[in-house]
Amino acid sequence: MKLTNQQIQYISDYIASQDIKWYELQVELTDHMISSMEEFWTNDPELTFHQVKQYAEDKFGRNGFKAIEKERTKILRKEHRNCHVKLIKEYFKLPKILLSVLAVFMVYKSSFYFDDSVVFIRVLFGILLGFSVFSIINWYRFRKINGKRFLSLETAYIMNNSTLSISFYSIFLIKSWKDSVGDSYEFIIFFCSLWVLGILVQITGRHLTNKVVTDIKRQYQLS
Predict the structure, then answer these.
(1) Span 84-100, pLDDT tens digits
(2) Whole-angstrom Cα distance, residue 195 to residue 127?
(3) Where do transmembrane segments lie in this chain (predicted)?
């Protein structure tokens, strides 16, 4: 027995009311619920709508919707992390590694304009921190597509925030690190390399989120 459009809308609204705020999960869980309900109803047409709804919901188990959301979040984070790492690794292979080495060299050369290496490194990572904050602002502004929120987009944006901790640690702990290891060109090159890596994280993270947005719009036919 097939559910009517009104009943399908009721199930969709019910799923959303269970604190499932991600559109793709709402669609998926609604489809699963409808299929399960229609199966129960076909096997026993005497059941009422609310009875088959309860039976279908019982199949998910206690807190089943949130458990599925939690599991999907773990899967997406792993997928996005692997994809992000793969994009970054491309800059350590020919020919892009030449650009990475050149970037480190140019950043290192700019340190000659500073008398104090601590000030130089704090300026560098202050810039990186600015990029990180800009990414967070973008996440807040564009986390919805046509008024809908997507778990895949949320987890992709989170990957861009990894440079925040790098920036904070470098800015606030650089003085103590310098006192421990001394002021040498190796010390400066290390932080120049770390800064370039942070920039690569930002660039590839932006590419990843743009791809996720494109895939979402294509899959759900959104503009």
Answers:
(1) 999 999 999 999 999 99
(2) 9
(3) 97-114, 120-139, 151-172, 184-201
CA-CA distances (angstroms) from residue 193 to 30, 82, 172, 184, 199?
Answer: 48, 22, 18, 14, 10
CA gap 174, 168 in Å, rounded: 10
How wide is the angle at C-alpha 29 spanned by C-alphas 28 and 30, nearest 5°?
90
Is the bond preceding residue 95 a cis peptide, omega within 30 degrees?
A: yes
* Six-digit token string for 190: 């290390």
Q: What is the pTM of this model?
A: 0.86
What residue spans define the domains of the chain?
A: 5-61, 72-220
pLDDT at 89: 96
pLDDT category at 8 given cuts 50, 70, 90 is very high
